[in-house]
């Protein structure tokens, strides 16, 4: 009887330890921000950064700016403006990368939310003012583009795009984008 009780206690202890370890690992991965420096803007939604002495290409999650630097596609309307805005805002600047579920895409680029400052809390106001992905949407330089499983901020992003569309900001003021505006 005592031996059975010891086995049960040992099993419960093992399960409890496993749960605690899993929770610690989960919370450590939440809210991690990697500080890096933007060394080049490839286009409105793609950057080259220096992270811990290594250069990486970073694709902003959840947004798509019109093309300016695509091997097959032509320069799209409002693409140069989006690239110029990103360049003005980020070149040479320290930023913080936040990763979602998938850290890299099939091209080997890091997939990240780019924060101008670390957020104190994840609130609508913090996202609007500190996350560059959101700023691109709010200013009309980008459209929402979601790729599963990286959808952490999709509800915020859809709202920010709606606001830019309704205000006719950026690309939403161009006739070519009015068609997609009516579909949404």
From TrEMBL:
Pfam families noted in UniProt: SNase
Superkingdom to which the source organism belongs: Bacteria
Coiled coil: none
Keywords associated with the record: Endonuclease, Hydrolase, Nuclease
Residue stretches making up the TNase-like domain: 32-174
Molecular function, one GO term: hydrolase activity
PROSITE patterns cross-referenced by the UniProt entry: TNASE_2 (PS01284), TNASE_3 (PS50830)
Official protein name in the record: Nuclease
């Amino acid at each position: 009887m005592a031996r059975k009780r010891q086995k049960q206690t040992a099993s419960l202890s093992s399960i409890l330890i496993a749960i605690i370890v899993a929770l610690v690992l989960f919370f450590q991965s939440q809210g991690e921000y990697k500080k890096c420096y933007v060394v080049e803007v490839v286009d409105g939604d793609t950057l080259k950064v220096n992270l811990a002495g290594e250069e990486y290409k970073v694709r902003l999650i959840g947004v798509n700016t019109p093309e300016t630097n695509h091997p097959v596609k032509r320069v799209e309307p409002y693409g140069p403006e989006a690239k110029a805005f990103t360049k003005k805002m980020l070149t040479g600047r320290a930023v913080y990368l936040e990763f979602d579920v998938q850290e890299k895409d099939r091209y080997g680029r890091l997939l990240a939310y780019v924060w101008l400052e670390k957020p104190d809390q994840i609130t609508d106001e913090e996202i609007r003012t500190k996350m560059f992905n959101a700023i691109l949407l709010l200013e009309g330089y980008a459209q929402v583009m979601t790729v599963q499983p990286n959808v952490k901020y999709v509800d915020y992003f859809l709202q920010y795009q709606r606001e830019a569309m309704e205000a006719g900001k950026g690309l939403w003021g161009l006739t070519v984008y009015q068609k997609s505006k009516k579909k949404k």
